[in-house]
Amino acid sequence: MEFHIKTPISEDKVRELRVGDTLYINGIIFTARDEAHKRALEYAKEGKALPISVEGFAIFHCGPIAQQVGSEWRIVSAGPTTSTRMEMFESDFLDRFKVRIVVGKGGMGERTTEAMKRVGAVYCAFTGGAGALGAGAVQRVRGVEWLDLGMPEALWILDIKDFGPLTVAIDAHGKNLYEEVDRRVGENLQRIYARI
Amino acid sequence: MDIDLLAEKLRTHFVKLIDLAVTALPTNIEEALKKTLNEETSEIAREQLKAILRNIQVAREKHIPICQDTGIQMFHLSIGEDFPLKAELPKIITEAVRKATSEALLRPNAIHPLTRLNTRDNTGIDVPYIEWNLLEGNTLEVEVIPKGAGSENMSALKMLNPGDGLRGVKRFIIEIVAAAGGKPCPPYVLGVGIGLCSDSVMKLARRASMRPLQKRNEDPEIANLEDELLGLVNETGIGSMGLGGRTTALAVNIEVGHTHTAELPVGIIFQCWAARRAAARIYPNGRAEYLSHEVS
Prior knowledge:
The structure holds 2 protein chains of 2 kinds.
Chain A: E1 2-6, H1 11-14, E2 22-31, H2 34-46, E3 58-60, E4 65-69, E5 72-77, H3 87-97, E6 101-104, H4 110-119, E7 122-125, H5 131-136, E8 138-145, E9 155-170, H6 177-195
Parallel strand pairs in A: 1-2, 2-3, 3-6, 6-7
Antiparallel strand pairs in A: 2-9, 4-5, 7-9, 8-9
Chain B: H1 3-23, H2 27-39, H3 43-62, E1 72-80, H4 89-102, E2 129-135, E3 140-147, H5 149-152, E4 156-160, H6 165-180, E5 188-196, H7 198-210, H8 220-235, E6 249-259, E7 264-271, E8 278-282, E9 288-290
Parallel strand pairs in B: 1-2, 5-6
Antiparallel strand pairs in B: 1-3, 3-8, 4-7, 5-7, 8-9
């Protein structure tokens, strides 16, 4: 199934999505990678509020190339980064901040899959390396926070239009496409090792 | 020729090489990706490959970086002993990298490994990274490699026991491919080094990962091993972006060096589908002949 959704998205709506569905996102997306996840969880621990409320929105594992033209920022290239680096943070992040969509590449593990089922969220794969396509979906840079972390690690707040195609790879029902591929690869490996 | 003028010309060529590398993928990779799409039957993998090909086209047309991860800049220099400028080259390269960063061709990626503080201009201790190779003659050949972290993080080195033999080498390669899964952005080029020592085997692997696709190893036995391993890697079914499919690697390239009788080093470097490189030969008068791209 193909879905065109607008953020923020409700828990009920996100639970309608299934592994294998194609998704296009409109509205607002936040970039967050290693350092932003780390800082957000530190803030939560200290009882400090995030600079923006992310509940119901989508986060994008992405460190864009951005260029400042006058007082405005412009996104030059913005594809996904490897999501497994965020595996150590994501389940806590989902519990605390209730984001409904996580976009990245390469998939995520068991802890995140369980958290997505518990919280009501999905993981979407965006094609790795597709920085030019990603930038094409950005209408406007709404703002940037935590720029002290460096351009790639900062929290970019982006207005996006028809951001996709994204493949739902982990749904809110505990299904993980990468685990299915892993299982098949595991069977193939037995055959390969036997021949080496 | 005036040395300052030559330095200025070199700086311009180096910025141009970075520009070409990050915005225009060499056409042989694009052709291989098109072939992969034609052969692919998995619908999810086909969607990934179509997005990759569209992305390559958009980047070229809009003159923007193919991938936002423009890497740490690596420069390979093959310098003729009579080329008029030598010791100044690192400074000129550093200036070119700063300029390319300020023009938003490069994302500021260089950070201190422990403080994680970003220098904001892609320079730092030994960065940009430069490798030198001395040749006869009076030209300078420059290769620029912007290597992203997604695939670089999957690199591996193992000092095998000589008794593990060829079987051990193959097993190690497949184990690393399996562990990397979709993370190095397949379909990738797998670079394998066999022999030499622990650090130099990684250089062999780097060279293998950057070898143009149509070239096979000159030793027919090694070329056969490349074909055999390509078959095995694709049999894993990891597929484009690790979402399953028939093509995981576009090529397996192997470079070999002699080694110690008590050693069997194997190095592995993945080169993601965005196999960006640009190369030029520069003459003492500052004229550049671009080797990787057609430049009008």
